[in-house]
Amino acid sequence: MGQAQWTEVDAFLSSLLVGEDDALTEATAAGRRAGLPPISVSPAQGKLLYLLAKTLGAKRVLEIGTLGGYSAIWMARALPKDGHLVSLEYSPRHAEVASGNIARAGLVGVVEIRVGAAADNLPKLAAEGGEPFDMVFIDADKGGYPDYLDWSLQLTRPGGLIVADNVVRGGAVADGLSRDANVQGVRSYLEKVAADPRLEGTVMQTVGVKGYDGLSIARVVA
Ligand code: SAH
Ligand code: DHB
Ligand code: MG
Protein backbone atom coordinates (compact mmCIF):
# COMPACT_ATOMS: atom_id res chain seq x y z
CA MET A 1 0.00 0.00 0.00
CA GLY A 2 1.28 3.42 -0.86
CA GLN A 3 2.22 5.54 -3.85
CA ALA A 4 2.77 2.62 -6.27
CA GLN A 5 -0.72 1.29 -5.59
CA TRP A 6 -2.34 4.75 -5.70
CA THR A 7 -0.75 5.32 -9.12
CA GLU A 8 -1.79 1.90 -10.41
CA VAL A 9 -5.40 2.26 -9.25
CA ASP A 10 -5.58 5.83 -10.60
CA ALA A 11 -4.40 4.56 -14.00
CA PHE A 12 -7.02 1.78 -13.94
CA LEU A 13 -9.89 4.08 -12.97
CA SER A 14 -8.83 6.80 -15.42
CA SER A 15 -8.60 4.42 -18.35
CA LEU A 16 -12.00 2.94 -17.42
CA LEU A 17 -13.95 6.11 -16.68
CA VAL A 18 -12.22 9.35 -17.56
CA GLY A 19 -11.81 9.18 -21.31
CA GLU A 20 -8.89 11.54 -21.83
CA ASP A 21 -8.68 12.42 -25.53
CA ASP A 22 -5.78 13.48 -27.79
CA ALA A 23 -6.07 17.20 -26.98
CA LEU A 24 -5.63 16.50 -23.24
CA THR A 25 -2.87 13.94 -23.73
CA GLU A 26 -1.08 16.36 -26.04
CA ALA A 27 -1.52 19.22 -23.53
CA THR A 28 0.38 17.17 -20.96
CA ALA A 29 3.05 16.18 -23.49
CA ALA A 30 3.52 19.77 -24.66
CA GLY A 31 3.97 20.91 -21.06
CA ARG A 32 6.61 18.24 -20.52
CA ARG A 33 8.46 19.21 -23.71
CA ALA A 34 8.42 22.86 -22.66
CA GLY A 35 9.82 22.01 -19.23
CA LEU A 36 6.70 22.98 -17.27
CA PRO A 37 6.41 21.27 -13.86
CA PRO A 38 4.20 18.14 -14.00
CA ILE A 39 1.68 19.45 -11.49
CA SER A 40 -1.61 19.67 -13.41
CA VAL A 41 -4.63 18.04 -11.86
CA SER A 42 -4.82 14.32 -12.65
CA PRO A 43 -7.20 13.06 -15.37
CA ALA A 44 -9.69 11.87 -12.71
CA GLN A 45 -9.53 15.25 -10.96
CA GLY A 46 -9.98 17.05 -14.29
CA LYS A 47 -13.08 14.96 -14.93
CA LEU A 48 -14.39 15.88 -11.47
CA LEU A 49 -13.96 19.60 -12.24
CA TYR A 50 -15.78 19.05 -15.55
CA LEU A 51 -18.64 17.23 -13.78
CA LEU A 52 -18.97 19.94 -11.13
CA ALA A 53 -19.14 22.67 -13.79
CA LYS A 54 -21.69 20.68 -15.83
CA THR A 55 -23.83 19.94 -12.78
CA LEU A 56 -23.88 23.65 -11.93
CA GLY A 57 -24.94 24.49 -15.48
CA ALA A 58 -21.95 26.81 -15.42
CA LYS A 59 -21.53 29.43 -18.15
CA ARG A 60 -18.68 31.35 -16.54
CA VAL A 61 -15.67 29.84 -14.75
CA LEU A 62 -12.67 31.56 -13.16
CA GLU A 63 -9.39 29.70 -12.72
CA ILE A 64 -6.44 30.98 -10.68
CA GLY A 65 -3.28 29.21 -11.92
CA THR A 66 -3.35 28.09 -15.57
CA LEU A 67 -0.01 26.25 -16.00
CA GLY A 68 -0.33 24.51 -19.41
CA GLY A 69 -4.12 24.73 -19.54
CA TYR A 70 -4.91 21.11 -18.66
CA SER A 71 -7.57 21.85 -16.02
CA ALA A 72 -8.82 24.81 -18.08
CA ILE A 73 -9.53 22.48 -21.03
CA TRP A 74 -11.51 20.13 -18.78
CA MET A 75 -13.65 22.91 -17.30
CA ALA A 76 -14.11 24.78 -20.60
CA ARG A 77 -15.52 21.60 -22.12
CA ALA A 78 -18.34 21.68 -19.57
CA LEU A 79 -19.49 25.12 -20.76
CA PRO A 80 -21.97 25.98 -23.50
CA LYS A 81 -20.66 27.40 -26.82
CA ASP A 82 -21.10 30.95 -25.53
CA GLY A 83 -19.50 30.11 -22.17
CA HIS A 84 -16.40 31.86 -20.86
CA LEU A 85 -13.46 30.71 -18.76
CA VAL A 86 -11.00 33.30 -17.47
CA SER A 87 -7.72 31.82 -16.27
CA LEU A 88 -5.09 33.85 -14.39
CA GLU A 89 -1.42 32.93 -14.82
CA TYR A 90 1.70 34.65 -13.51
CA SER A 91 4.20 33.12 -15.93
CA PRO A 92 4.13 34.37 -19.56
CA ARG A 93 5.89 31.14 -20.54
CA HIS A 94 3.21 28.95 -18.95
CA ALA A 95 0.50 31.11 -20.56
CA GLU A 96 2.13 30.66 -23.97
CA VAL A 97 2.17 26.87 -23.64
CA ALA A 98 -1.43 26.97 -22.41
CA SER A 99 -2.52 29.08 -25.40
CA GLY A 100 -1.17 26.44 -27.79
CA ASN A 101 -2.90 23.66 -25.90
CA ILE A 102 -6.19 25.56 -25.77
CA ALA A 103 -6.01 26.26 -29.51
CA ARG A 104 -5.39 22.56 -30.24
CA ALA A 105 -8.44 21.74 -28.09
CA GLY A 106 -10.58 24.12 -30.17
CA LEU A 107 -11.35 26.37 -27.19
CA VAL A 108 -9.90 29.72 -28.31
CA GLY A 109 -13.31 31.39 -28.20
CA VAL A 110 -14.05 30.09 -24.70
CA VAL A 111 -10.82 30.41 -22.70
CA GLU A 112 -9.18 33.75 -21.96
CA ILE A 113 -5.80 33.76 -20.21
CA ARG A 114 -4.78 36.88 -18.30
CA VAL A 115 -1.06 37.06 -17.60
CA GLY A 116 0.16 38.59 -14.34
CA ALA A 117 -0.04 38.10 -10.60
CA ALA A 118 -3.51 36.96 -9.57
CA ALA A 119 -3.43 39.55 -6.78
CA ASP A 120 -3.25 42.25 -9.49
CA ASN A 121 -5.72 40.72 -11.92
CA LEU A 122 -8.47 39.83 -9.42
CA PRO A 123 -9.19 43.48 -8.44
CA LYS A 124 -9.18 44.40 -12.14
CA LEU A 125 -11.64 41.63 -12.89
CA ALA A 126 -13.89 42.83 -10.05
CA ALA A 127 -13.66 46.44 -11.25
CA GLU A 128 -14.85 45.41 -14.71
CA GLY A 129 -18.18 44.51 -13.15
CA GLY A 130 -18.86 41.56 -15.48
CA GLU A 131 -21.39 38.81 -14.87
CA PRO A 132 -20.58 36.78 -11.75
CA PHE A 133 -18.84 33.42 -12.09
CA ASP A 134 -20.59 30.10 -11.46
CA MET A 135 -17.42 28.37 -10.32
CA VAL A 136 -13.87 29.27 -9.30
CA PHE A 137 -10.93 26.86 -9.28
CA ILE A 138 -8.07 28.08 -7.08
CA ASP A 139 -4.77 26.33 -7.91
CA ALA A 140 -1.95 28.93 -7.84
CA ASP A 141 0.53 29.85 -5.06
CA LYS A 142 -0.78 28.42 -1.81
CA GLY A 143 0.21 31.47 0.28
CA GLY A 144 -2.21 33.50 -1.82
CA TYR A 145 -5.22 31.24 -1.19
CA PRO A 146 -6.79 33.32 1.64
CA ASP A 147 -6.70 36.46 -0.51
CA TYR A 148 -7.99 34.55 -3.56
CA LEU A 149 -10.91 33.33 -1.45
CA ASP A 150 -11.94 36.91 -0.64
CA TRP A 151 -11.93 37.87 -4.32
CA SER A 152 -13.66 34.65 -5.35
CA LEU A 153 -16.48 35.38 -2.91
CA GLN A 154 -16.93 38.79 -4.50
CA LEU A 155 -16.93 37.33 -7.99
CA THR A 156 -19.14 34.23 -7.57
CA ARG A 157 -22.95 34.05 -7.74
CA PRO A 158 -25.03 32.63 -4.91
CA GLY A 159 -25.19 28.87 -5.41
CA GLY A 160 -21.79 28.89 -7.13
CA LEU A 161 -18.78 26.80 -6.11
CA ILE A 162 -15.30 27.74 -4.99
CA VAL A 163 -12.94 24.77 -5.38
CA ALA A 164 -9.33 24.75 -4.15
CA ASP A 165 -6.59 22.22 -4.97
CA ASN A 166 -3.81 20.86 -2.76
CA VAL A 167 -5.30 21.63 0.65
CA VAL A 168 -4.18 18.46 2.46
CA ARG A 169 -0.50 18.43 1.46
CA GLY A 170 0.44 14.90 2.48
CA GLY A 171 -1.42 15.37 5.76
CA ALA A 172 0.59 18.45 6.79
CA VAL A 173 -2.63 20.53 6.86
CA ALA A 174 -3.39 19.11 10.32
CA ASP A 175 -0.11 20.46 11.74
CA GLY A 176 -0.83 23.89 13.13
CA LEU A 177 2.83 24.35 14.05
CA SER A 178 4.09 23.75 10.51
CA ARG A 179 6.70 26.29 9.34
CA ASP A 180 5.77 25.61 5.72
CA ALA A 181 4.20 28.75 4.22
CA ASN A 182 2.15 26.58 1.83
CA VAL A 183 0.67 24.68 4.78
CA GLN A 184 -0.10 27.92 6.61
CA GLY A 185 -1.69 29.29 3.41
CA VAL A 186 -4.11 26.41 3.00
CA ARG A 187 -4.85 26.32 6.75
CA SER A 188 -5.83 30.00 6.70
CA TYR A 189 -7.89 29.34 3.59
CA LEU A 190 -9.83 26.52 5.26
CA GLU A 191 -10.27 28.52 8.47
CA LYS A 192 -11.81 31.31 6.39
CA VAL A 193 -14.12 28.89 4.61
CA ALA A 194 -15.21 27.50 7.99
CA ALA A 195 -15.79 30.92 9.57
CA ASP A 196 -17.62 32.65 6.72
CA PRO A 197 -21.42 32.38 6.95
CA ARG A 198 -21.61 32.97 3.18
CA LEU A 199 -19.94 29.58 2.59
CA GLU A 200 -20.69 25.93 3.29
CA GLY A 201 -17.73 23.74 2.52
CA THR A 202 -15.90 20.49 2.92
CA VAL A 203 -12.59 18.86 2.04
CA MET A 204 -12.16 15.46 0.43
CA GLN A 205 -8.78 13.84 1.05
CA THR A 206 -7.45 12.20 -2.10
CA VAL A 207 -4.79 9.68 -3.06
CA GLY A 208 -3.70 8.95 -6.61
CA VAL A 209 -1.00 9.62 -9.14
CA LYS A 210 -0.26 12.96 -7.43
CA GLY A 211 0.19 11.44 -3.99
CA TYR A 212 -1.82 12.23 -0.86
CA ASP A 213 -3.62 15.55 -1.04
CA GLY A 214 -7.14 16.95 -1.06
CA LEU A 215 -9.68 19.20 -2.69
CA SER A 216 -11.78 21.79 -0.90
CA ILE A 217 -15.27 22.44 -2.26
CA ALA A 218 -17.31 25.33 -0.90
CA ARG A 219 -20.72 26.53 -2.00
CA VAL A 220 -21.67 30.19 -1.89
CA VAL A 221 -24.87 30.20 0.15
CA ALA A 222 -27.80 31.31 -1.96
N1 SAH B 1 -4.51 24.46 -12.77
C1 SAH B 1 -3.38 23.89 -13.49
C2 SAH B 1 -2.16 23.77 -12.61
C3 SAH B 1 -1.71 25.07 -12.01
S1 SAH B 1 -0.08 24.95 -11.31
C4 SAH B 1 -3.80 22.50 -14.00
O1 SAH B 1 -4.30 21.73 -13.18
O2 SAH B 1 -3.60 22.19 -15.18
C5 SAH B 1 0.05 26.53 -10.57
C6 SAH B 1 0.20 27.68 -11.56
O3 SAH B 1 0.00 28.89 -10.81
C7 SAH B 1 1.60 27.78 -12.18
O4 SAH B 1 1.50 27.86 -13.58
C8 SAH B 1 2.16 29.08 -11.62
O5 SAH B 1 2.97 29.81 -12.52
C9 SAH B 1 0.88 29.87 -11.32
N2 SAH B 1 1.06 30.91 -10.29
C10 SAH B 1 1.89 30.90 -9.23
N3 SAH B 1 1.79 32.04 -8.53
C11 SAH B 1 0.86 32.80 -9.18
C12 SAH B 1 0.32 34.09 -8.94
N4 SAH B 1 0.71 34.83 -7.91
N5 SAH B 1 -0.62 34.56 -9.80
C13 SAH B 1 -1.03 33.79 -10.86
N6 SAH B 1 -0.54 32.57 -11.12
C14 SAH B 1 0.39 32.08 -10.31
C1 DHB C 1 2.40 22.03 -6.84
C2 DHB C 1 1.34 22.87 -7.17
C3 DHB C 1 0.09 22.31 -7.46
O1 DHB C 1 -0.99 23.09 -7.75
C4 DHB C 1 -0.10 20.94 -7.42
O2 DHB C 1 -1.34 20.46 -7.70
C5 DHB C 1 0.96 20.11 -7.11
C6 DHB C 1 2.21 20.65 -6.82
C7 DHB C 1 3.71 22.63 -6.54
O3 DHB C 1 3.83 23.84 -6.60
O4 DHB C 1 4.63 21.87 -6.27
MG1 MG D 1 -2.76 21.97 -7.87
From TrEMBL:
Is Nuclease there in the keyword field? no
Q: Which InterPro entries match?
A: Cation-dep_OMT, SAM-dependent_MTases_sf, SAM_O-MeTrfase
Q: Does the keyword Isomerase apply?
A: no
Q: Which SUPFAM superfamilies match?
A: S-adenosyl-L-methionine-dependent methyltransferases
Signal sequence extent: none
**What keywords are annotated for this sequence in UniProt?**
Methyltransferase, S-adenosyl-L-methionine, Transferase
Q: What is this protein called?
A: O-methyltransferase
| Organism of derivation | Glycomyces niveus
